[in-house]
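Reopening this one. Same input as before:
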Amino acid sequence: MLIVEKLPWANSLQMTAGVEDAIRQLEPGLPGITFDTKVFQQANFVKLAIANLTQALVIGFILVVVILALFLFEWRMALISLLTIPLSLVATMLVLYWLGATINTMTLAGLVIALGAVVDDAIIDVENITRRLREERLAGGGRSTSEVILNACLEVRSPIVYATLIIVAASVPVFLLAGLTGAFFRPLALSYTLAIAASMAVALTVTPALALLMLRGAKIERRKSPLVSWLQKGYTAGLSRIIIRPVAAYATVAALTVLGVAVYPQLGQSLFPAFKEHDFLIHWVSPPGTSSAEMERSTTRISKELLAIPGVQSTGAHIGQALLGEEVAGVNLGEIWVSLAPNANYTEALDRIHAVTLGYPGLFREVQTYLDERISEVLTGGKEPIVVRVYGEDLRTLRATSDQILDLVKSVPGVIDAHRDISSDVPRLQSANACHRNMTPSATAATR
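Same output, byte for byte:
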């Protein structure tokens, strides 16, 4: 297995294409060797993230068209919104480009999160302009279309600006985060804030101009949405009952508040997003002293079982430490790479992979996505959410103490996969009649 690592600022898609092109050039000179470059490619996740963003944009466009068609009964207003939404995102991308930022997973996540606010800005301005134009023309007013549009935009200018400033102010603490956590979340906050600011700028400048161009001669006062009339009647009837008897409303709000407080502890407090990568990394660790032949046998066997799972596209594995490898490990440590097909059932395939790994008792096995593992190790220094470290000079005392801590941790309700990560005595040939035991005075008890 040849592992190719890129520099942080390199483009994953371009680098992957370059590596594949280099391998194609090498193949004629290496007869009898078959290359599989699909074992793990981070570019696949980048492509998936871009596809998800595209899907979110399409869904957002469709929802905007449906909402404006139902509430405004005017296709021109839907077209204006469809033009302003991508314009806001393109403006954001241009600013990111001028700042020298790259498009990564967190940048795309920030754009997806901001999409709701971008759509909201596009609708608010358009809806108010349409409503004021209808009212002016139905009332027989003499004001020009440009004057009505200007006044309608000024009405919503303050709410849009204040809402944008509130959102930006809420993002400021993320920019003040220090260390690796700040470096991780800052691109998300930057793309999110820029998208909100660009949306505000477009709503205050481009939207009124497009409305003036497309609505100057449109007969929008002739069409009125029946849905709006029906909703207004229902809202008026419901609101009048609540105002007369507010006790029921107060009781409902109190019940929802109590329910929210009760559910809050079950929601979890992890700040890390869940990445549904189609590439998994399985840590495959046997007891120290396990032979290379046994590790090869078990790794080959589980690889065949993994390939039999519907949706698994390919597997690859490496055992121990390769020459000039990035990890220091014995032959008892292995890593298995599993790639799912793009159309695979993600949840079902992941459950099947977990079930296969559980069929090998006595080994430490852990199924993670590559990004989850890298994030956990970089930000926390360990893969488990809770790590208890024990320090000392006597290895026997360390082991006894770590066993006591492990028993206490296992007794806590809700704890799963509690284990001790500690050095073990590994026989090593020193001479013809003696063996040396390698011992390291450090112990760790870990849980998740």
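So the earlier flakiness isn't reproducible anymore. For the record, Residues 227-263 form one domain.
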